[in-house]
Amino acid sequence: MNDKKKWQKTLELHEELGPLIRAYLKSKFRLQESDVDDVIQETFEKVFSKLESLRQKEAEKSWVFSIARNVTLTYLRKAQRVITNYGEPQEYDDDENRSSSLENIEEAIAAAEKMEEELCMQSCVEKGLAEYERDYPEALCPLLVTLSELKRPIEEMAAIIYRTVPETKKLLKRCQKEKKCYPDYFNDYQKAHGLESFCWLVFYLKKEGWDRKEIGALINKTDGNVGMTLNRCKQKLMPYLEKCLVDCES
Q1: Tell me: the pLDDT tens digits for 7-62?
Q2: Which residues of 203-228 are buried (b: 16+ CB within 10 A; e: fewer)?
Q3: Which DSSP letter does residue 139 get?
Q4: Which residue has the higher pLDDT, 82 or 160?
Q5: Spans of all domains in the chain
Q6: Cα(99)–Cα(103) distance, integer angstroms
């Protein structure tokens, strides 16, 4: 593979996987933007330099995730060494603050050990939900309408539904216009489109830590109805997601 082809392939992988790795680094380790930029850059520099060693196309995502994990671990361990060198990169008022900072980095290093598997799961869930949406396109609107009412930034909404920001704005505008056709939105929408149209929404809320009472208050259902909805949605979604458990935990 010549450098031009390697560069093109690296750009494709960066475009596909870079945003996922970036979001993971920022949410999991709370790195500063400049540090995230450095990790991403080094990750894909290594992808470019080692691309010829990749033999199986189907393994390319896990291969990139493995490189990102190793780069992140190196970065965190370097930060750990700096913190143990008193006064660098910042002065600490007492041993307790220094110990706390070191402990936080040690926790981050432990979390990074699982990074490859978690990135694999996120990528697989993205693919599974995209397939679910193709079968049940009505599932996007309850999710988008809810995220909008929760005042989530459009960039965050785009990331959740795996779309660009312009695409998300267009979809949200359509969903908000459609909402006006349903006086009792959640009940009427489900009657019109079926339980499947709510599964992505309840899956997301459950993933975000909402309990049954909170979900029920939002979608006008009792705790018992929410429980039945979650169970039925699990049955609907699992065929789209169960492959992740095999591919990412093997």
Answers
A1: 898 999 998 888 888 888 887 777 788 888 999 999 999 999 988 877 666 578 88
A2: bbbbeeebebeebbebbebeeeebee
A3: G
A4: 160
A5: 3-113, 121-249
A6: 6
Closest CA to 228 of 191, 197, 202, 201: 202
Mean pLDDT of 148-171: 88
For residue 199, give every residue at least 6 positions away whose Cβ sits within 8 Å of its Cβ, in sequence order, or none.
Answer: 132, 136, 139, 233, 236, 237
Give 3-state DSSP helix, strand, coil % of the chain, rounded to 5.
85, 0, 15
Domain 3-113 of CATH type 1.10.1740: yes
At 151, give phi and psi (nearest 5°).
65, 35
Per-residue pLDDT band for 245 (boundaries 50, 70, 90) equals low
How far from 131 is each of 100, 151, 160, 192, 238, CA to CA, in Å? 44, 27, 15, 21, 12
141-167 burial, b at 16+ Cβ within 10 Å, e below that, comes to: bbbbbbbeeeeeeeeebbbbbbbeeee
